[in-house]
Amino acid sequence: MPLIRGRVLVFAAIVLSAFTLRSAVTSISPLFPRIGDDLGFGAGVIGVLGMVPTLMFAVFGVAAPAIAVRLGLERTALVAALVTAVGIVARSYAPGTVSLVLLSAVALAGMGVGNVVIPPLVKRYFSDRVAVMSTVYICFLQFGTIVPSLTAVPVADALGWRASLAVWGLAAVAAAVPWFAVGVIDRRSRTTTATPVTAPQSESPAPAGPRVAPWRTSLGWGMALMFGMTSLITYSLFAWLPSLLVESGVSESAGGVAVGVFSALGLAASLVAPWLATRMVNPFPVAVACAAFFLAGFAGLYFSPGHLTLLWVVLVGAGPTTFPLALTLINLRTRTEKGSSALSGFTQGVGYLVACSGPLLFGALHEASGAWTWSFAFLIGAVVVLLVAARAACRPRVLEDVLAARHTP
C-alpha cells in the first residue's frame, strides 16, 4: 500500500481522536442540574466531577508513555479511543452517583492517554509538517471542547440526558476505526516487507535506548509548569467566571456567553500558536504577551467586572495561547518520537496534577475572605510561575541533547 494512503488514514485517526479528547468533560457539565435532580446529588458531587478530568489526565498522562512502549503508539491510541467510548456510553446508563463518577473516570482515563500519544504520533508520521498538523489537531481538540457544550442541552431536551451523554461515545468509536485500520495495514506490511509502510522510513521507531527522563532537565520542568499554570488558570476561570460575573450584577445568560467567548478564543489561539512556535527560534515573547493579557484581564475583572465585561473576557481568553504553544513545543523540543512521548507524558501529567488545585483554591480563597482579592492574587502568582517556566521551556534546545550532555564525561 502506498505511503501516502497510510498517512491519510493516520491523519483521519488523529483528527477524530483530537475531537473526542474533551467530549466527556464538556458534554456533561451543562447537564449537571438535571442529572443531579435525577440521581440525587448536589454541589459537592459536582465539585468532585469537576476535579476528575484533571486528576485522570494527570495520572494517565504519567502512565501513557509506559503503555505506549509496551503496546506501540498506534495500538495505544486505539485502546484509548475504545476505553473512552466504553466509559462514555456506560456512564449514560449509570444508575447512581457513584457509578456516574467511576464511569466518567474510565472515559477520562482513555482521554488522558490520548492526550499524550497524539503529539508523538504527529512527530512519527508528519515530522515534515509539524506546525500544520499541530494546528489541525489542536483546532479539532478545541472544536471537541466547544461543540459538546453547545449541543448537550438541546439533545437532552429532545432525547433525555442519557442520550445526550451517550452520543459522544459514537465519536470515540469513529476515532477507533482508522486506528484499527492502521494496525491491520501495519501487520500486513510486516508479513510482506521488512518495515511497515504506514510511517515514513526516516521516522520509524528508534531502537531501544536509555530512558528519556524529562524530570532531570530544566526544559522538562519548564514545559510541565508552563502547561500546568496555563491549565490551572483556565480551569479556575471555567469554574468561577460565571459566579464572579453574577455577583457583580451581570445576568446568568451573559455569564454563560462570557464562558463561551472565553472557550472560543482557544480556537483562535490554536491557529496562531503553532505557526509562531515554528517561526521563532525562541517564542518566549509569545508567553510574555500571554502573561500581559492575563494580567490586564484580571485587573478588569477585579476592578470593573460589570463594565466592559466582554473586553476583560477577551483579554483573559487570549492568555491561554500558551496551551497550544506548549503542545507544539513538545515536538519542537525533542528529536525522536520516544523523546516526544516522554516529554508529552511528563508535561501533561505534572501539568494537569498542578491544575487540579486551581478551581479548589480559587474558590476556597473566595469563601474564606468573602471577596475576590486573594483569589486573583493566587492567579497572579500562577502567571509569575508561568513566565519563569516559559523562559526555560522556550529556550532553543532539544531534550535528548540536554540529557546526553549530562552524561558526557
Automatic annotation (TrEMBL):
It is a multi-pass membrane protein. Its main location: membrane. The keyword Membrane applies. It is found in: Cell membrane. The keyword Transmembrane applies. Residues 10-393 form the Major facilitator superfamily (MFS) profile domain. Keywords: Membrane, Transmembrane, Transmembrane helix. It comes from the Bacteria. The chain crosses the membrane at residues 40-64, 76-94, 100-118, 130-153, 165-185, 219-241, 253-277, 284-303, 309-330, 342-365, 371-390. It holds the Pfam family MFS_1. This is MFS transporter. It comes from Rhodococcoides kroppenstedtii.
